[in-house]
Amino acid sequence: MEQLQRSSSSSAKSSSKINGKVVIISEGQSAPGNSLLLRIYSCTEDTPDTAESGEGKFSEEAYLKHGESNDFDGMKTTTYKVKFQVKPDFGIPGALVIKSQHKHKLFLQSATLEIINQNIHFNCNSWIYPFKNTNADRIFFSNTSYLPSQTPSGLRGLRMRELGRLRGNGTGERKEWDRIYDYDCYNDLGNPDKGREHARPVLGGPLHPYPRRVRTGRPPSNQDPLTESRPEKGKLDIYVPSDEQLSPKKLSELISNAVQATLHFLIPQTVQDSRSFSSFEETSSIFSGKRSQVAEKWVKETLKKMVPDKLYKEVIHASKKNPLKFPLPQIIAENQLAWLDDQEFGRQMLAGINPTRIKWLKDFPPKSKKGMSSSITISHIEHSLDGVPFHEARGSMVILDHHDYLMPFLSRINKEGVCVYASRTLLYSRSDSTLKPLAIELSLPGCSCGNQQINRVFVPVSEGTEAALWQLAKAHVAANDSVYHQLISHWLKTHAVVEPFIIATRRQLSEMHPIHRLLDPHFKDTMHINALARSILINSGGILEKILFSGEISMELSSKLYKEWRFDEQALPADLLKRGLVQSDPNSPTGVELLFDYPYAVDGLDVWTAIKTWVTDFCSIFYKDDDSVKADSELKAWRKEIRTVGHGDKSYARWYEMTTCSNLIQILTILIWITSGLHAVVNFGQYAYAGYPLNRPGLCRKFIPEEGTFEFAEFLKDPDQYYLKMLPEKFEMSIGVALADVLSRHTSDELYLGQRPSEWTDNEEVQHKFEKFNEELQKIEKKIKARNRNPELKNRQGPAKIPYNLLYLDTSNIGSKEGITGKGIPNSISI
To answer: Which pLDDT value is given to residue 448?
Structure first.
């Protein structure tokens, strides 16, 4: 930077012009020409008169000229030249201010200013809306980062002005062009104007605590003043700040994927007569995808009502141009019966899509928080311990526990054809680290007083009636785990908890703040994805209510489990310690030592360590000691707003104080881990495992029959038929498969861990540390490859022969990784 200052100074004495280039992406609109007014601001204050405003010298207004365009996939990228007239003592440009009088919105990708042999870069990546809509110009800062106290005098006013605009005043309905970030409760999940059955509680507040979302400001519904009305123009027309919107290409790609998955998986099942599958072989018909022209027409007509005409045309074009391939889910690709194997059942708790719930068995028999003991006894399990005495095997037992949180909800869930138990599954970690199921306890509420419950215990048997009952019990456990995975591990603990951090970052950390720059790629697209989820996934009558046994109380259940969430426990080592699956090791870089072959944990700790090292290196460049962290006013405001507003319902929980470098590093590492590694683990394996719904059903329609009942006679007559009738109907299954397909696909514009836009920083030391981070990620790739080839690590592939690649970056194929790959760690929660 000092060299740039010297170069700029000598240049300014001999020239009053600064040349630049501006890159704009448009969708066929007319060229901006003189409709964009550009001005650059110096880092240096002009005169004592302007010193009070904290704004530096500025150039004369300039216009774009001589554009050179490239067309690709319907998008036009144009590089324009621009010349700024400045005073001879102008100094270093630090900000670019643009006012648009164009009739359309334009996407400003980047700008570059040329000073002798040095360039000053602006990574803009932002929509520019007409001034008549926004009534404001747009401010962009160069890629130089400054702590608040180090802000050049000429940029102080612009820094404060921009933050003030982004915060808004908490009033009014937001429009498409707004860039305002303020908070609201989840008061838009219900739609009482459609009927009482669509009323849902507001999430956020003492009764139903929850993270906050970005405020949209829509008026209240007619039937309930506490519930926000739904968008009038269509279900997908929902406000997110303009800088958080998906690119037109990505939005059309996502909708195209959804349309094609619907036509392939869902529609063929709706035109068949039977509601259930008649055989296991018939379940493969889900993947045949024979289309109906009538159904295809219906899907297109429905879509046309949901999205603007222009987007509709893009989606139809994308669907025809890029027809998707629909492979068999990996769980049945190599061995169609692997999902029935007990070893595979246990392996998925360590290496499937929900490897974060299993924990060490602390008490035997297991106890609820109210002190009620399980009905599992030593006699149920001692014969399954590979000859090891119970007292010796006791320390090697783990539990998948879906009991306490479900029990209070079962009386509301078990109606209208839904049959659900709360479950406890005990497993034994064998000498080869595979997990051997020992017993499954399924529980129902007893008397209405809640002090009793009905427990049934099932143990593994290899053949006969008991073996068939065991498979039914496993299906009920899989349904419990599927619901927990979708609502808690995936939605709550990644999507929902991160949104308040994004809002606070935009409101409290200036774009030129180094921590804003560090976090920015890890927030890409998340707010828009969350808004779409509130419109079609988690809303009343949405997809999750249709395919999960939790139905209309799904988000209430999510709120109940948010009460247990703590930010500091989201650090991977802390999470593993809490679950008792590692032991403390002060000599380890992670502070923990693994106790057995746990693919998620071993790969995750490698990625966690790489992220923490990168964050440590980055922070050490800008914060030389703890006092510099304490002195950062923006950082303090950021932390306070997250704790008291964004996660205000958890303000009483333990939050790291913003007083030391180590605390700052831990906060940032946790946040980047959640948005990258953790989300990749719980999301991108969905098609591999849940794409075959018998492996992970979302609900059950029958209880396990008891001897002496009509249902038991029905079961004895044809156990396979009973099993199939117990699972979701064809329609629900097909929706689930289509959803797993869409969520598991990487999009073509994805940015992965270790990737950033070119010229994202002008700090050479930061660039060097980032290269070091990339080198470490490539080493982790090699380690994962070696582990997957090691036959002694039996949990890496298991009976289904699915290599554990959910934390494999696959850097050699970055740029060609769109589609269902089951690997790759995107920077952000972008699907």
So the answer is: 59
Whether the link from the prior residue into 365 is cis, omega within 30° of 0, is: yes
Residue 62 is classified by DSSP as B
Query: Taking a C-beta distance cutoff of 8 angstroms, is the pair 597, 795 a contact?
Result: yes
Q: Rounded distance, CA 569 to CA 532, Å?
A: 28
Query: How far, CA to CA in Å, does 668 sit from each of 501, 618, 673?
Result: 11, 11, 8
Q: How far apart are CA 696 and CA 741, in angstroms?
A: 14
Residue 373's alpha-carbon distances to 365, 400, 403, 404, 652, in angstroms, are 6, 16, 11, 11, 31
Examine the pLDDT at 30 and tell me if it is beyond 80: no
Q: Give yes or no for a contact between 123 and 143, defined as CB atoms under 8 angstroms apart.
A: yes
- Cα separation, 96 vs 105, in Å, equals 18
Whether the pLDDT of residue 233 is over 90: the answer is no
Tell me which amino acid residue 507 is: R
Asked whether 505 and 519 are in contact (CB, 8 A), the reply is yes
| Span 808-823, average pLDDT | 75
Distance CA 474, CA 472 (A): 5
Which residues carry out catalysis? 490, 495, 679, 683, 831
Length of the chain: 831
Eight-state DSSP code of residue 448? T
Choice between 603 and 26, residue whose per-residue pLDDT is larger: 603
Lowest pLDDT segment from 175-179, 773-777, 792-796: 175-179
- The model's pLDDT over 385-437, given as tens digits with 9 standing for 90+, comes to 999 999 999 999 999 999 999 999 999 999 888 999 999 999 999 999 999 99
Of 160, 58, 36, 192, the closest CA to residue 106 belongs to 36
Are residues 138 and 105 in contact, defined by beta-carbon separation less than 8 angstroms? no
642 φ, ψ (degrees, to nearest 5): -60, -45
Distance of alpha carbon 647 from alpha carbon 735, whole angstroms: 33
In whole angstroms, what is the distance from residue 68 CA to residue 111 CA? 14
Torsion angle of alpha carbons 156, 162, 163, 166, nearest 10°? 180
Any alpha helices (H) in 405-553, and if so which ranges?
A: 410-413, 465-484, 497-508, 514-519, 526-536, 543-547
Closest CA to 770 of 782, 781, 758: 758
What SS3 state is found at 213? Answer: strand
Geometric angle at alpha carbon 105, from 103 and 111, rounded to 5°: 115
347 or 730, higher pLDDT: 347
| Residue 4 confidence (pLDDT) above 50 | no
Query: What is the Cα–Cα distance from 771 to 754, expressed in whole angstroms?
Result: 8
- Cβ contacts of residue 682 below 8 Å, gap of 6+? 353, 354, 356, 485, 489, 490, 493, 494
Cα separation, 23 vs 20, whole angstroms: 10
Rounded to the nearest 10°, the torsion over CA 522, 524, 525, 527 is: 60
Measure Cα distances from 518 to 498, 523, 641, 689, 760 in Å.
15, 10, 19, 34, 10
What pLDDT score was predicted for residue 6?
39
Binned at pLDDT 50, 70 and 90, residue 117 comes out as confident
Both tokens assigned to 455 = 């427990």
DSSP state of 681: H
**Average model confidence (pLDDT) across the chain:** 89
* 305 has a pLDDT exceeding 90: no
Give the DSSP per-residue string, 562-625: HTT--GGGGSHHHHHHHTTSEEE-TTSTTSEEE-S--HHHHHHHHHHHHHHHHHHHHHHHH--S
Tokens (6 digits) for 521: 């790629």
Query: Cα angle vertex 419, ends 418, 422, to 5°?
Result: 125
Half-sphere exposure of 663 (CA within 13 A, CB side): 17
Element (H, E) at 397: strand 397-402
